[in-house]
Amino acid sequence: MTYGDYWRVLHADFGRLYAAMPRPGVWAFLRTAHAIRFRYVFWFRTVGFTHSRPLLRYLVYPVVRLIHRHWCFHYGIEIPWNTQIGPGLLIGHVGGIVVSCLAKIG
User: Fold this and answer.
1) Is the pLDDT reported for residue 21 higher than 90?
2) Bridge-based pairing state of the strands 84-85 and 104-105
3) Is the overall model pTM greater than 0.90, yes or no?
């Protein structure tokens, strides 16, 4: 995954969550940026990105992986970092979400 792909996918994920807000505006944008659902998606995408880059795999990946695991336990969402999920991921609720690493979504 290149840097451009990483930012494109994150932008699509954020746009999907922002579009789901009842009243888009400045305050909705700020709430969305710190939303629980986007926080998990951000770390999910970042783990996959850092693992795909050779230099980041050894320097940043272990720390990012720990942060991702923390949010997995905190929110009750179990989506392995190597699950293939296309752009525009929207998590509708937290808790009780389990996806196999063999799944291909989107």
Assistant:
1) no
2) parallel
3) no
